[in-house]
Design a protein that fits this description.
166 residues, alpha+beta, 4-stranded antiparallel β-sheet, rod-shaped
Amino acid sequence: MNQLSAEGWIAVISLSATAMLLIMVIALWAKTNKLRRTLANMTAGADGDSLEKVLTDIQGNLRRLSGESERHGERLNVLEKRLAVMKGRIALHRYNAFGGSGNGGSDLSFSLAIVDDERNGAVITAIHGRDETFVYGKPVAGGRSDYKLTPEELEAIGMAMGEKNA
């Protein structure tokens, strides 16, 4: 058997330790390169500014965007309130005011409902006869009026509200 001297063992241990340290240096070098690439991606376009400045800028932009988002939300609420009271629900119900086919008038009579989401607005009715046409306008509040609403006018209001069986 070949026996190593103490100096030989020291050389073997030193060589082993050197190999382990070399492997650790290579692993650390790889991790450092990965961190450099990540930092480069985070600071892209920062013109060499420090990471602290980049993060401060990002935080400022987030605050600005948050404020803008809040202002947009407030504006949206105002617009939704305005939209709810706009008379944007409109329906036209045509009918024969005299019924039957031989009584004249055909489907030339109509009721036009112009209301908002709360059924506030107006209904305009035109009754067309053989010799005359009468036009009536009635204010509507909550789907009701101080003036008697005809079934055709109620149907026009229902149609404006999107009711299927109106």
